[in-house]
Structures are given as structure tokens and as C-alpha cells.
From TrEMBL:
The keyword rRNA-binding does not apply. It comes from the Eukaryota. Keywords: DNA-binding. InterPro entries: NA-bd_OB-fold. GO terms for molecular function: DNA binding. The gene is RPA1B_6. PANTHER family: OS03G0429900 PROTEIN. This is Replication protein a 70 kDa dna-binding subunit b. The lineage of its organism: Eukaryota, Viridiplantae, Streptophyta, Embryophyta, Tracheophyta. The keyword DNA-binding applies.
Length: 212
């Protein structure tokens, strides 16, 4: 069954190219902060991937028409089909409502990319001890816990260089980056944020890593 999805763009991941196809994952949200991943495939990945990437900071409203909804590894996913189309900042009613909501969030100085998602809000609340003793038999893929940051481990160097194509860490020597994932020498790269923290809930301590 095909459907239409109207949402706000929050992030664009690296394009994945294989012998069979091309795909690019787009992270979107709505007024419920219900974040979802939309996978653009084939020509749509190539045509709109870079366009949407350049618009990330504007968080435009995007309509995906005739897309397929399914469940993969327990998660709800959306992907384009050969008949799908993409509209950026359309003017129909639902899109206008989302644009107005986003304007109201900006007026309240709320960053929609930093607000807890519906998935996290509904995640099971746990203790640090539960995370440390995590078992693969646990049913909860997402959980949340309250903790206090005690120190920043890498406060003097919170950056790493990543490949612009796959976003994985690269080795840079004499301003030349080599990506072992893409198997390309002298590839385009950029600095990305990675903060490593010590956190505590008053009883146990653990390390937590935050990516941009």
C-alpha cells in the first residue's frame, strides 16, 4: 500500500552506492516530534539527496508522495518506489500547518532537532546500572535515564575528521584524507563533533558519547 508523508527535514545521511542501487536516508519529523527515516532510492536519491542536504539548516517541509511504509528489524521505515515523487515546501494545507508550527517553535527559541523524540519519550526509563548490565535479550531498543555530567573526557579535542561520502572516520596526513570504507585516497572530508562524557546517577558511573 502506497501513501503520502508530509514532514520537516532535520538531517540527511551519506549516500550509499552499491552495484544494484543508490540510496540516501533522510531524517524527518513532525509536530509530535515523531522522527522517522525516509530512504530515497535510485534516481530520487541522486536527484534530491544533495538538494536536501544543502537545505538542512532551513528545515524545509517535504512531501513524499506514493511511498511505501514497512517494518524492518522492529522499526517503522519509509522508502520511495519507482512511482514516488518529492515536493519541497509545498503550499497545501498540511504543509502550511507544519510550516506555521515550525515558526512558532522558533519564536519560542526551541530547536526541533534537539527536542526529545516521541520514540525516546515513550522509551522505558532505566538506571545506569541497567545500561551497564545490558543484555541482548532486553526487548527495549530505546531507553532513557537521568544522570549528571561529571566531566568531559575530550574537552580539548571534541572533533574528528570524517569522510563526506560515508561519514566514517578518516586518517588525515598532510591534509590528504584516506577512507578505508570507501577505499578512496584523497577524499573530501569534514570535521564532525563527538563529545565523550562521564555521567553518574549518584550510584554508578559510565561513559556516554554524543555525536552531532
Amino acid at each position: 500500500i502506497l501513501t503520502d508523508v508530509v514532514c520537516i527535514l532535520t538531517n540527511v545521511k551519506a549516500q550509499v552506492v552499491t552495484e544494484k542501487n543508490k540510496r540516501k536516508e533522510i531524517i524527518v519529523t513532525d509536530e509530535r516530534i515523531d522522527r522517522k527515516t525516509v530512504t530515497l532510492r535510485g534516481d530520487l536519491a541522486e536527484k534530491y539527496g544533495e538538494i536536501l542536504r544543502e537545505l538542512i539548516n532551513e528545515h524545509p517541509v517535504v512531501a513524499f508522495c506514493d511511498v511505501k511504509k514497512s517494518t524492518f528489524q522492529g522499526e517503522f521505515v519509509i522508502s520511495t518506489t519507482p512511482t514516488s515523487s518529492v515536493l519541497i515546501n509545498p503550499t497545501f494545507e498540511k504543509a502550511t500547518e507544519l510550516q506555521n508550527w515550525q515558526v512558532s517553535m522558533k519564536a519560542e527559541n526551541k530547536d526541533i532537532t534537539l527536542m526529545p523524540s516521541k520514540l525516546i519519550r515513550e522509551g522505558r526509563e532505566v538506571k545506569i546500572d541497567d545500561v551497564i548490565n545490558y543484555s541482548t535479550t532486553m526487548k527495549d531498543l530505546y531507553c532513557r535515564f537521568n544522570a549528571q555530567m561529571t566531566s568531559v573526557i575530550n574537552k580539548d579535542d571534541p572533533w574528528y575528521y570524517s569522510c563526506k561520502k560515508c561519514y566514517k572516520k578518516v586518517n588525515v596526513e598532510n591534509e590528504i584524507a584516506n577512507c578505508s570504507i570507501c577505499m578512496i585516497n584523497d577524499i573530501d572530508y569534514e570535521a564532525r563533533y563527538c563529545l565523550k562524557l562521564d555521567v553518574s546517577d549518584g550510584k554508578r558511573y559510565m561513559n556516554a558519547t554524543l555525536f552531532d
